[in-house]
Specification:
The protein starts with 12 loop residues before the first helix and ends in a 26-residue tail after the last helix. Among the domains are: 61 residues, no CATH class; 53 residues, no CATH class. The protein is built from nine helices and no strands. The protein is mainly α and 188 residues long.
Length: 188
């Protein structure tokens, strides 16, 4: 078995523990504690076990710590799965969504996630779940929420007549309590 890789010594174990105490990311904190334990002379396998990782994993973090310092102990950004629709198809989908559905052609009066899933599968031969479709709409800067419905025969003038008029004394400050204005303060 080869000798363990030496850990750079620019920080003491106490300093690594202090950094671990104030670290917000629990995984980085565990890595710092494992390095501090290994620097104090605890065998690598035991230091890794105390931090909840394997010896091989601790060795990988030692490599990154030696090269990049404490910043190397942070997880790298993961891009995740790429969108199954290319940018041209995404633009076409956005245009379809922004255009209101035609009840005869599309079979619905308002777009729902399941309607868009069906449409994307028919047009682009790509399957999306409803939650995946909602994430895709969010990435296209669209919202799944619908505006409050308005009756087609609603009259703005009739709604204005129905509203209660504002009180004349509203917003003019405090009114004195009733029945107390006849009391007078008598000095003397």
């Amino acid at each position: 078995m080869p000798a363990p890789l030496p850990i750079r010594g620019d920080r003491s174990p106490a300093e690594l523990r202090r950094l671990a105490r104030y670290e917000h990311d629990g995984r980085v904190s565990a890595r710092l504690l494992a390095l501090a334990n290994a620097l104090e002379g605890i065998p690598r396998e035991e230091a890794a076990r105390l931090a909840g990782m394997t010896g091989q994993t601790l060795g990988d973090w030692v490599h990154r710590y030696n090269v990049q310092g404490v910043a190397g102990l942070r997880d790298h950004h993961r891009t995740g799965r790429h969108c199954r629709l290319d940018p041209g198809r995404q633009a076409a989908l956005k245009a379809i969504v922004l255009r209101a559905p035609d009840p005869e052609r599309d079979g619905c009066v308002a777009w729902r996630a399941r309607d868009l899933c069906r449409l994307v599968e028919q047009r682009f031969h790509v399957h999306y779940s409803e939650s995946g479709m909602l994430r895709l709409l969010h990435s296209l800067e669209l919202s799944w929420q619908k505006p409050r419905p308005v009756h087609p025969e609603a009259s703005v003038k009739a709604q204005a007549r129905f509203k209660k008029p504002a009180r004349a004394d509203a917003g003019r400050g405090r009114t004195p309590p009733r029945g107390r204005d006849d009391r007078a303060v008598v000095r003397g």
